[in-house]
Design the sequence.
């Protein structure tokens, strides 16, 4: 695998007149051609600072960021722009430019003093717009596009810059699920088809776990964990990174548990998707699953419709929905507390 | 690999797409407009001169009316040239400031640059009063230059202040800051003038009523080169200004040197607004409204189109406003800034009402 960006013993942070504030320290990691990497971690862990330092917008306190063997903040801005492009969190207001013209601004480092686009530039702009699936947006004014459409245009603009590396900061925030999945797909295609390497910081754990080739996991004050999403889940890095934030990560479901104090328990007898979703509802409401419990919840599978049967102290109740089941369980008094 | 070639071929088919070129046919109309208003300015006044007379007087053709030649050469031509260049300069400066500050209501006047220039001129006039105006009058070129220097210095100082403040405050707040700077300058001017004699005050008051009519031939060797340099600078900076539309951070990520662009563009704005204010006095509204008119007419924010557009449109609007001032009115004469306000204020109101962000102002 070809290394595009090499980060060596990097310490990021700020220097003021009197002191140094270290945000992250001693990071050594490479970015390879053609991979989509998600940078995740709790708020305040220093993701943005790391990304700014990686992209040459901020000087590191110590260590190196090497692009083609050269320190990134020693590369002239125009040369750097041909190798690395950014999508930032800030919302741009470009007045009366069309989406096409905004994407064409990506050609900035490649054009002459007037910014004149030749046929090749127009071809690349079209290609970028097509890649982003935004052909129907190109003639519209950027100011009248929705958040998701804007993000597509900004990604197309970063792509039209023809960089080797694209760094995207919280691209999927403010987007609904279908839009997030769409953008993620788009980025995967861009990375694998064009051989760029794409680094995306996100808060969307689920999407990062499913969509990225590698994850850079940055816990608060800790060291950077790098690996495939699955490796990081299995070796407990995920759990550890979010534990300090008071959040439980469940290895089995690959998701976070919202409730973690159990007040009751039940034995669950069911199978299939009913089993998974019943369990989720129980856990959310602070009811643990324990096969030795005195309360039994059984899913009664019928051909047309199923129901949930609760047996407790020789009493039996039947509920038609999970919602009713949870409400019913609330009235059950268990002697042994957990 | 095959997939990317497919993309390339289908994109190449539609490469004829030409953004923002749909209204370029308006440029010849603007050029004709400049020439037309230029000739009308020369012809219309208390003495009416037909266009043919204007042309023959201008080019000193045979049989040209000597009185007309005198009127045009001595009075109307300097004023007309000043209006044409002044309008272009203020329009271009306004566009540069609006893009640089990302503020639709920025302009030499709104940001207090004009007030800074006024203060500079007031200081020069006072200094002249103190060291004796006869000294300055003896060296006419020097006094000419000192007023320009005063105006530009005032302009520059205000601009530096605005630039340093703009990092910390929002769009509207910056305008209020500029407005306050203007009041501060006015207060200082009033105090300064208090210590000068009446004739000096009268000189200042005459200058302070902005007009293109106070410009004479001897001013052009300073005024025109500065404005031309500023305009050329503006035209050379269209690409970085376009990148600036995306905001400073994106512009930097595109390989633009933000510092250099800032420095050159603000330098140009001072070169444009300073000398014009020095010779014509404070001209209100033009710098603010001309960029909006250009955006409205050409329907784009692309500076490759807007920069030449504001230069031509600025000339036309300034010539038209000055023409209106110098129509043969029965009594009195109109003030240029009154006419500017009549065109300008409604446009500013329209900009505020149209812009969602500017309508609301939260505290």
Sequence:
């Amino acid at each position: 695998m070809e290394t595009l960006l090499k980060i060596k013993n990097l310490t990021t942070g700020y220097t003021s007149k009197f002191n140094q504030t270290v945000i992250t320290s001693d990071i050594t990691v490479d970015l390879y051609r053609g991979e989509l990497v998600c940078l995740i971690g709790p708020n305040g862990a220093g993701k943005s600072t790391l990304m700014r330092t990686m992209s040459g917008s901020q000087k590191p306190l110590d260590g190196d960021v090497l692009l083609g063997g050269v320190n990134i903040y020693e590369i002239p801005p125009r040369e750097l722009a041909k190798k690395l492009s950014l999508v930032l969190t800030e919302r741009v207001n470009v007045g009366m430019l069309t989406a096409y013209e905004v994407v064409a601004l990506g050609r900035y480092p490649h054009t002459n003093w007037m910014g004149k686009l030749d046929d090749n530039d127009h071809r690349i702009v079209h290609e970028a717009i097509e890649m982003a699936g935004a052909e129907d947006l190109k003639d519209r004014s950027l100011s009248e596009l929705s958040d998701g459409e804007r993000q597509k245009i900004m990604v197309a603009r970063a792509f039209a810059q023809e960089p080797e590396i694209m760094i995207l900061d919280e691209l999927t925030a403010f987007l609904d699920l279908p839009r997030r999945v769409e953008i993620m797909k788009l980025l995967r295609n861009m990375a694998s088809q064009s051989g760029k390497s794409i680094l995306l910081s996100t808060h969307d754990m689920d999407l990062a776990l499913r969509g990225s080739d590698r994850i850079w996991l940055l816990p608060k004050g800790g060291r950077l964990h790098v690996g495939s999403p699955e490796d990081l889940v299995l070796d407990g890095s995920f759990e550890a990174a979010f534990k300090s934030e008071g959040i439980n990560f469940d290895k089995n479901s690959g998701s976070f548990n919202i409730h973690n104090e159990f007040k009751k328990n039940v034995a669950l007898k069911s199978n299939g998707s009913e089993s998974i979703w019943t369990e989720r509802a129980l856990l959310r409401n602070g009811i643990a699953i324990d096969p030795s419990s005195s309360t039994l919840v059984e899913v009664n599978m019928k051909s047309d419709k199923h129901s949930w049967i609760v047996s407790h102290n020789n009493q039996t109740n039947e509920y038609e929905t999970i919602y009713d089941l949870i409400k019913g369980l609330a009235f059950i008094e268990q002697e042994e507390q957990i | 690999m095959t997939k990317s070639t497919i993309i390339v071929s289908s994109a190449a088919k539609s490469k004829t797409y030409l953004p923002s070129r749909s209204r370029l046919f308006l440029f010849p109309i603007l050029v004709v407009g400049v020439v037309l208003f230029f000739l009308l300015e020369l012809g219309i006044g208390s003495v009416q001169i037909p266009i043919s007379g204007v042309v023959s007087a201008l080019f000193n053709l045979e049989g040209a009316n000597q009185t007309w030649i005198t009127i045009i050469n001595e009075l109307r031509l300097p004023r007309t040239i000043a209006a044409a260049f002044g309008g272009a300069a203020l329009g271009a400066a306004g566009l540069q400031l609006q893009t640089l500050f990302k503020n639709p209501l920025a302009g030499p006047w709104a940001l207090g640059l004009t007030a800074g220039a006024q203060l500079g001129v007031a200081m020069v006039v006072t200094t002249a009063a103190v060291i004796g105006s006869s000294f300055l009058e003896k060296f006419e070129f020097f006094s000419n230059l000192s007023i320009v220097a005063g105006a530009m210095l005032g302009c520059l100082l205000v601009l530096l202040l605005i630039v340093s403040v703009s990092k910390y405050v929002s769009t509207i707040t910056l305008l209020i800051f500029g407005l306050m700077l203007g009041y501060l300058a006015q207060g200082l001017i009033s105090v300064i003038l208090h210590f000068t004699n009446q004739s000096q005050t009268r000189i200042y008051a005459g200058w302070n009523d902005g007009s293109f009519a106070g410009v004479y031939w001897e001013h052009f060797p300073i005024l025109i080169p500065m404005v031309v340099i500023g305009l050329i600078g503006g035209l050379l900076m269209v690409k970085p200004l376009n990148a600036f539309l995306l905001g400073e951070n994106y512009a930097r990520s595109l390989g633009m040197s933000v510092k250099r662009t800032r420095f050159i563009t603000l330098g140009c704005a001072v070169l444009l607004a300073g000398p014009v204010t020095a010779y014509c006095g404070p001209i209100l509204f033009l710098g603010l409204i001309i960029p909006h008119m250009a955006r409205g007419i050409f329907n784009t924010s692309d500076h490759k189109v807007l920069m030449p557009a504001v230069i031509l449109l600025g000339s036309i609007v300034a010539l038209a406003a000055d023409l209106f001032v110098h129509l043969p009115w029965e009594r009195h004469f109109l003030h240029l800034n009154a006419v500017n306000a009549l065109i300008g204020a409604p446009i500013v109101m329209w900009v505020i009402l149209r812009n969602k962000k500017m309508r609301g102002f939260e505290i």
The two ends of chain A are 51 Å apart (CA to CA). The mean pLDDT of chain A is 88. DSSP finds eleven helices and 17 strands in chain A. The longest strand of chain A covers residues 3-15.
